[in-house]
Amino acid sequence: MNLPPGTLTRLSARKDRHSHAEPDRVRMQHLALDLTLDFAAKVVRGTATVRFVRPDPQAPLVLDTFGLAIEAVTGADGKPRAFVVGKEDPALGAPLTVTLVGSDAEVTVRYATTARAEALQWLAAEQTRDRKQPFLFTQGQSILTRSYIPLQDSPGVRITYEARVKAPPGITVVMSAEQLGERDGGFAFRMKEAIPPYLIALAAGRIEFAKISDRAGVWAEPSLVKSARDELEDTEKMIAAAEALFGPYRWGRYDIIVLPPSFPFGGMENPRLTFATPTILAGDKSLVGLVAHELAHSWSGNLVTNATWSDFWLNEGFTSYCEQRIMEQVFSPERSNLEKTLARTELVRELGELEPWQEVLHVELDKRHPDTAFSSVPYVKGSLFLQRIERAYGRDKFDAFLRGYFDDHAFQSITTGDFVAAYQKRLASAAPEIARTIDLNGWLLGTGLPDDAPTSPSTGIAEVDAALAQWASGKPAASLVTNGWVTQQWEHFIQSLPADLSLARLTELDKTFKFTRSGNSEILTDWLVVAIRTGYKPAMPRLEEFLLGVGRRKFLKPLYAELAKTPEGLAWARALYVRARPRYHAVAVGTIDQLLSWKPSGAPS
Ligand code: BES
Ligand code: ZN
How far apart are the first and last CA of the chain? Predict the structure, then answer.
């Protein structure tokens, strides 16, 4: 194989540097939660019972915690066990080490969360759409689960779980698990498949359910649930398409909860229950690619999981590839090509700004926080790598490889080295002359985008380029042929505008296409970036409203970054951020603090 000596060993490292746990000595297998949600105090409290096996009978149990108040640890006999909370690492939190006695196979930790629980976002009723009840949601990925549950928080450790969660009247609790209804005054759940801990998730608020099919549906606040259902009605078609491509859907139900707008991501693939931002509800189904993406994680990510965060591209690169295949199947090759082209353009743009280590698929994290490697690289470079392999061997062979890859590694956590072995076994060994043409080492460990990265020509992109050329040559915006354009075409249009535009031409565009008033947050964000860059003042009130109303990091980041490029913009951004920051999730706050050089005290540095 064309990998230099020693490389496969490096790609196969299973040690997780982002967990204190020592699963080779004592390994967690099951978690039972008994929790109460205290909305007034913004605290989750109760017990976590951890069941484990002990390859090393002498070793203590080591769990991850972050800012948890540990009250007691007891054995199955109800008697206390000695424990110590070790030194806290600022990113990883503190190890909770429990001395085990005799043949202990489980312990129960009584604990409460603190204000430092970054996985939790507590929303006041006013921060929800219907303004009737408060809301809580969790975000575990990458290493935040430990801030509300003491456990072995490593993607290489797979567990089943059960939970009982008590909440105030009027609040419904859902989790990334099978719902068992209400029991003993709480909502009961059970996840029978072994999942990595970052996929444990909970949401609680005034929510209702609307059915899409026998196995799919939507949760949302009452005033949104019907329109959300209609927008997401193609979900069942997507599941069917995905099963035909990748093998059976192994999780039972597939529901989606549409969260309040402060959710920091577009979507999160929590098993059986994708968490989604309301900003995907554009009214025309143009942003449902996100559902295809989160659904695809039911195979790549949830079924076959990255063993360490250095292998994150296995989750997101495979998922982006599978998302494109679903979109092609359910909609059209053109739609998929359009989305691929947009994603590739964004990757190339980001590669101009990233540090070399961030450009590598198998990323060297060392002690760096996994989130510092977050970019288009694992997603888009990863999926381009798989497209490259697909084109080399042909789709039939590649599809067989995918099926085999998912079956062989189902419910396992694997390394990039395991991927290389699967590729070798199922594709390369039968066709060495093709294998020689693909530079595995360059793709997996090189910086930049390899020269053989595929492109996906799109007629929709060509139409937009033609219109842009006409407009650049002086034709009025109103005369451009734009009817039938979809969101992604408008995005390409706005992103391709020249860096310097006169106020007259900006005004003309805005009058003609109503960008400032767009209810589509992808289009709006692209336009607001242009408005900031060119100093187009009429868009500023809308920018303010958007930054105060939406907490999705993908939108906040380019807007604050563009503002931070000039002294006046930075001052304006910081003034606004004072008000906006308390509304954002910790994940978004982390990113924007850095962009604005914000000191936690509130004083800009
Ligand atoms: N699993 C990710 C979100 C994530 C990644 C959370 C890393 C925390 C750490 C999710 O599947 C995702 O990729 N979401 C994207 C949407 C997608 C269509 C590219 C997002 O949130 O924008
Ligand atoms: Zn993803």
Answer: 51
Q: Is the dihedral of CA 524, 529, 534, 538 positive or negative?
A: positive
Q: State the ligand closest to the CA atom of 279.
A: 1
pTM for the structure as a whole = 0.98
Query: Looking at the predicted structure, is the pLDDT value of residue 593 above 60?
Result: yes
Say if CB 119 and CB 140 are below 8 A apart. yes
Catalytic residue among 22, 231, 269, 294: 294
Q: Write out residues with Cβ below 6 Å of ligand 1.
A: 141-142, 265-269, 290, 293-294, 297, 316, 374, 379, 554
Residues 6+ away with beta carbon under 8 Å from 551: 261, 262, 263, 264, 583, 584, 585, 588
Return the biggest CA–CA distance within the chain.
83
By most ligand atoms within 8 Å of CB, the mutation choice from 138, 232, 265, 316 for ligand 1 is 265
Local structure of 65: helix, strand or coil: strand
Q: Which ligand is nearest to the CA of 289?
A: 1
Model confidence over 462-496: pLDDT tens digits? Answer: 999 999 999 999 999 999 999 999 999 999 999 99
Q: What is the Å distance from ligand 1's center to 353 Cα? A: 20
Angstrom CA distances, 241 to 228, 299, 321, 330, stand at 21, 13, 14, 7
Which residue of 263, 277, 300, 316 sits with most ligand 1 atoms within 8 Å of its CB, as the best mutation to test the pocket? 316
Q: pLDDT class for 601, splitting at 50, 70, 90?
A: low
Ligand located closest to 552 CA: 1
Dist CA 4 CA 45 (whole Å): 51
DSSP secondary-structure letter at 67?
Answer: S
As residues whose CB is below 5 A from the ion ligand 2, the structure lists: 316, 319
CA distance 191 to 175: 9
Q: Compute the half-sphere exposure of residue 175: CA atoms within 13 Å on the CB side of its CA.
A: 24
Q: What is the dihedral angle through the alpha carbons of 112, 115, 121, 127, rounded to the nearest 10 degrees?
A: 120
Q: Report how far ligand 1's centroid is from the alpha carbon of 429 (Å).
A: 34
> Which pLDDT score, from 0 to 100, does residue 94 have?
98
Query: For all residues of the chain together, what is the average pLDDT?
Result: 97
**Per-residue pLDDT reduced to its tens digit, 312-364:** 999 999 999 999 999 999 999 999 999 999 999 999 999 999 999 999 999 99
Q: Whose CA is nearest to atom 3 of ligand 1?
A: 268
- Catalytic annotation present for 294: yes
The average pLDDT across 40-48 equals 98
CA 284, 588, 604 angle in degrees (round to 5)? 130
Annotated catalytic residue, options 111, 148, 198, 379: 379
Give the mean model confidence (pLDDT) for residues 228-245: 98
pLDDT at 564: 98
Distance 247 CA to ligand 1 centre (A): 23
Q: Is 106 a catalytic residue?
A: no
| CA-wise closest residue to 145 among 133, 160, 155, 156 | 155
